[in-house]
Amino acid sequence: MTVEPATLDRTDPEAAIAATVARVSNWGRWGEDDVKGTLNLITDEHRRAAAGLVRRGRSFSLAQQFSMDGPQKGWRRRTNPVHTMLDTGTDAEAGVQGFPHGLGGADDVVAMPLQCSTQWDGLGHIFDHGRTWNGRRAGEVVTSLGDSRTGIETVASDFTGRGVLLDVGRVLGDGFGELPDGFAITPEHLDATIAAQGDTSRVGTGDLLLVRTGQYGRTRREGWGEYAGGPAPGLSFTSAEWLHERDVAAVATDTWGFEVRPNEFDVAFQPLHQVVIPNMGLFVGEMWALEELADDCAADSRYDFLLVAAPLPVTGAVGAPLNPIAVK
């Protein structure tokens, strides 16, 4: 059963979350010890088939820059990356590096929150009433030492498969192919995008789904503005069952928070996260750069491709940066 946006009781997010969880929960589906959630849906056969989608060999980086000029404003102590040089060309010219026979070099270091730019949310990132993925107690799983059960390193090799782009911004947006902030992408919008794009955009079991709203493209013209945490187009709360019915392995968007902002309830914060991460075991990607890939997909009318999107395997991390590569 798909919930219609018009039927949502905006005053009662807790009841809506509980009712949706009852319909889409994957707890126990892959065993009580599972740590991979919906990534279990990507099989070796899925990966072999995805490799067969490569025809031209054209590759696209889907990562935003990890830059000190990024979108972060300090919310939840999230800052932009701080890049510092440890050794430079001036040090080499000054002869202070201590290397023999004229050798010189440069070295650098970066300090950053793991979710300050293009990233995956891990299964330990969001809790539902004190429970994390598969019903485990949040306090037993994620401590000051990190995520001891579902740390992002446990799925470091699993994010390879068939990627599918649903360019909702191009199909339903304005002249720039962009949706307005606050636009809630419903199952009807997703189905309409598939119908407009054709068969290569069908979405099914084990797929890595990318949803373009166009908001990131707008920041390239107008600056970051309120991109990090402000109003944004995104998936409607009602899309949870659509994602569950199609058994997607992961979903990523070009926005800061994946779901529509402001959220669709009077008082709520990221309720779709609360459903899909701890209850469905679904991996969520945010702040992906989809503009170049979207232009190429529109040009050749092919919306599926091999996607390799491995997170940096930081032990115990509840999210991680990455440089996803789509190959067509």
UniProtKB/TrEMBL annotation:
GO terms for molecular function: arylformamidase activity. One of its GO terms (biological process) is L-tryptophan catabolic process to kynurenine. Pfam families: Cyclase. Transmembrane segments: none annotated. InterPro entries: KFase/CYL, KFase_sf. This is Kynurenine formamidase. It comes from the Bacteria.
